[in-house]
Amino acid sequence: NYQMVRGKARYGWLPEGKFLRYHKIEMISNGLWNSATGKHETTNTNLSWNFEATEGFMGTAMVTRATENLPDTLKLGNDQAYIPPGKYPFTFFTLQYFTAYSHALSGNITAEAGSFYDGWKLSLAAAPTLNLGSDFSLDLTYNLNYLNLSGRSLKFTNHIIGLKGLMTLTTETSLSAFIQYNTAVDKVYTNIRFRYNPSEGNDFWLVYD
Fold first, then answer.
1. Mind giving me the DSSP string for the chain?
2. CB of 33 within 8 A of CB of 40?
3. Among 71, 156, 147, residue whose Cα is nearest residue 116
4. Which residues of the chain fall short of a pLDDT of 70?
5. Tens digit of pLDDT for each residue in 22-31?
6. How far apart are CA 201 and CA 198, in angstroms?
């Protein structure tokens, strides 16, 4: 029950014989309105520079300007903090780096920092991937979120750690697993799936949660 207006402008170029083989400057702006109330609730504009190197790694540097009109109280984390209703403009910066995926060990890292509603936030994320041929892959994910609402003496730090694996046993069978620990709720979540695919379009699953 929302309406959205979205605009994008992009310019890219390919320098010859350079260390970086591709550049792109992009601006994206979104606006959302609640159709039930007719009120404008969200605006965000991203201005980013994206690059890709001749060796395969790539990255992004981005600044975001956002405005949120909260009609109700917004709860954050495991009810660790809250944002009162009101209008909040804020700005934050994002840096991303992706290694070349052709290597056995690859991954990406993201850092984000800036103002956040009536406070500020710092986020870090890392996701290394290990590929051992076409039969086995292992992914590790780590997310850190630190929020400080100093005007109201509210702050918290959350960590999420995840491990994901995929093993191809035969041409018809595979085993995948995802395990995650979240400090906000102090719980471990596990999902293990065995897949049997005798023919295209036919699957049999055994799932443990």
1. -EEEEEEEEEEEE--TTSSEEEEEEEEEEEEEEETTT--EEEEEEEEEEEEEETTS-EEEEEEEEEEEEESSPEEETTTTEEE-SEEEEEEEEEEEEE--TTSSEEEEEEEEEEEETTEEEEEEEEEEEEE-TTSEEEEEEEEEEEEEEGGGTEEEEEEEEEEEEEEE-SSSEEEEEEEEEETTTTEEEEEEEEEEEEETTEEEEEEE-
2. yes
3. 147
4. none
5. 999 999 999 9
6. 9
